[in-house]
Amino acid sequence: MAQQSWPYATYNAGAVTDAEYEVLxxxxxxxxxxxxxxxxxxxxxxxxxxxxVRAGVYASLRGHGWQSGTTATNLVISANASGSTRTDRxxxxxxxxxxxxxxxxxxxxxxxxxxxxxxxxxxxxxGVYEIPLATVTVPDSATSVTVTxxxxxxxxxxxxxxxxxxxxxxLPGEQAYETDxxxxxxxxxxIWVTVYEDSGQLTLGSGFSxxxxxxxxxxxxxxxVVTLRIARTRIGSPLYVDDPDGSKVATVPAALRPVTPxxxxxxxFSGGQSGRAExxxxxxxxxRALSGTVPVNGSLFLTMTYVRW
Length: 309
What we know:
There is one protein chain. This protein is mostly beta strands. The chain folds into three domains: 12-148, Triple-stranded beta-helix (Sandwich); 158-196, no CATH class; 202-307, Sandwich (Immunoglobulin-like), CATH 2.60.40.2460. The protein has one helix and 24 strands. The chain has one helix at residues 18-25; strands spanning 32-33, 43-45, 50-53, 58-61, 64-67, 73-76, 86-95, 100-106, 128-138, 146-149, 158-161, 175-178, 184-187, 192-196, 202-203, 205-206, 211-213, 218-222, 225-234, 247-251, 263-268, 274-279, 284-289, 299-307. The strands form six sheets. Strands 15, 17, 18, 19 and 24 form a five-stranded antiparallel β-sheet that branches. A hairpin with a 7-residue loop joins strand 9 (128-138) and strand 10. The longest helix is centred in the first third of the chain and has 8 residues, at 18-25. 23% of the residues are buried. This is Minor tail protein.
């Protein structure tokens, strides 16, 4: 068969079939209920062996819209006399025999857990496609059921913006990419949190005047992980082993500073003396000599990595 494209005036007189529509729309429309898990459950236990699908719910499935109606819909659950507990699913189903979407019950097998979702794609012309709404526990000889909610919700897309033009009314899970900073953020429902950022290589500030550069002193943040490289030589006076405060060897730029205190690292000076480094929330990097005094011209070459939290 030759290649085809649609919609096109000379192909099928410009008309688009249901199957062709699904091919297009399913890639541009998320499958799920409109809302988020803080909303009232879509499915709840009904009277006896039944469940209720609440009114006023909207959803999209493979590009096909669905609305639950202005009153609750009651779905019957089959009796269970198997001797074992049965788990059913309430699903939102696109049935390609009629090209309609509806909430229905997919009955499980006693003792086998919840039945798998059926998501036929293939030629997009037959079969069904389902997404979950809830699971229903039906004990043996039960006269009522228990419902566990499990709605699949429509997601939020990544929006380009700047650091001063974040979306004013974001939905939980919505992401925004700041083109001026390169930071990817996500809205939790109350605050924007950083998902990813790359600070690039930043130069560390100086410490006390008793330290001179012995190489590159730089740092970088990728995601939430900070790596620092320090190369400094002791000048002017030794770093004494009995100095309880130690000495400030560098200063970390604000973008790389830890949010919580107590970032400690083991170090070894060029003369073999062991020591301890601390990166403080102020950005100051302090070192102490532990096993012996570090003489003038003793050097420190150190790489430190920590999670910025």
